[in-house]
Structure of Band 7 domain-containing protein:
Amino acid sequence: MADSCGLLLTALSWILVVITMPFSLFFCLKIVQEYERAVIFRLGRLVSGGAKGPGLFFILPCIDTYRKVDLRVVSFDVPPQEILTKDSVTVSVDAVVYFRISDPCVSITNVEDAPRSTRLLAQTTLRNVLGTKTLAETLSDREHIAEVMKNNLDEGTDPWGVKVERVELKDVRIPREMQRSMAAEAESTREARAKVIAAEGEQKASRALKEAADVMADSPGALQLRYLQTLTTISAEKNSTIIFPFPMDLLAGFSAMTSGSGKEKGLMHD
């Protein structure tokens, strides 16, 4: 009975369109843009053939209704969510989600408001994903968290004809007390690392000095040259008078040379 009434109304609509030609064309011809599709319902049922467009499409007056669906990528901000992490730290996280309608007919017939439902699902997904992460993981693995959230959202919105293209975490805010604790911890770590580096430098310098001392111990002339080099450096940098003790080794050398010369003169005199 219902099918018969539908066929009868459809036939009457066609007769009305033909009788009122060409004025009826102003009501029957519709246009959708390149990025849009039209989902047509005839007597409450989805017209076979899927969504229409882009360009011109035809509807029957009185019995056909249609809804336009935008296929472009749409973005929305997920409001800041107060989340308790796995290690019992309360953080405030907000994100941005990019999605598009992949199936216009399904997005109209399976869900009342696909964009609004996607926003609500994004909020719950953000809380569920971050609830399984520690604070350190939340701060360091943001890309991985965004990828997990995207996959979960895409799986949840697939029956709605929605495709999630991208998810980005915008900001992670932690309490001020935790910020001070983290800053103090980071400063302590830097100080400890600086002390280790300084100790390693001193150790290397000590080894170098020991090697230099061993070389000078084996070569007394090298010690004298180093002494003279030090005097030259200080005299070039300082304008004041500096008194240094004269090395006894040099005196011993001169004494040996003088005594040797005296012996030679004595032998020659004899």
Summary: Residues 218-255 form one domain.
